[in-house]
Amino acid sequence: MEILDCVDAVARPLHDFGDEFMSDEATSAVGARAGFPPGRAFYCRGRFGVLGEAPVAVVRAAQGFLGPGLVSVGWRAGRPVMPAQDAAACYAGAVRQWGRAHIPGDVDVEHFNRLARRLIDAADADALPLFAGWRARPCPDDDPAGAAMQRVHVLREHRGACHLAAVRLCGLTARTAMVINLGSEQAAHYGWEQPPPASEALRPQWQRAERLTTELQAPLYAALTARERTEFRDLVVALTRTEETRADGGRISCPGTARTPVRP
Asked: InterPro entries, alphabetically (predicted)?
């Protein structure tokens, strides 16, 4: 399988499987049991806790695609509950727990883990702080399904970080990219208050950013042989096929996971 074909084939299912985890009530319940208040506190403090005790402006800059108010409120609400790195560890535990519950039992997660680890280890993390933080988190060898889900999350963060860089390189703001991809109403759901409609004249820049995102991920997949890339694609498809995603036929996605013109 060619490199760019593999990147495009796996990006969408990796994103959507991670999205299922993030939006699941079971994930929120883990945060609630840990003492996080309702809302986005566990999500923000847990997901972005790998950045350490960063000022909220730094957290907003590192993640990019969520509205600044959403991130500010969530990060500050989670701060009194536990230190950032402890919150990240708690979130990683929730990731693995969700993977154990949702990854189909007939998937060869051991082989997925071998290939995914090679991809993650091959990545250049320069200018990708959120990915670098998640790659640095321990991933237990004695929990194959949990480790597979954590690696799904890490690969998802790599795609998102590459896409943020690509969007800016193409002359767009993260908010504009959200509106072009999702529309103003859905962009507001992700924390952008009353975002104005985006001009259609900007769509070619967004399409270029989508293509560039795939190209930025290409060096990872060069770490696998053509045969291994085919195997990895097949494993990702098998691993991420839940009843929800089969029935839904595709979810609304954030930038970097556009339905057209490419599958990120």
From this structure: HTH_67 (IPR054058)
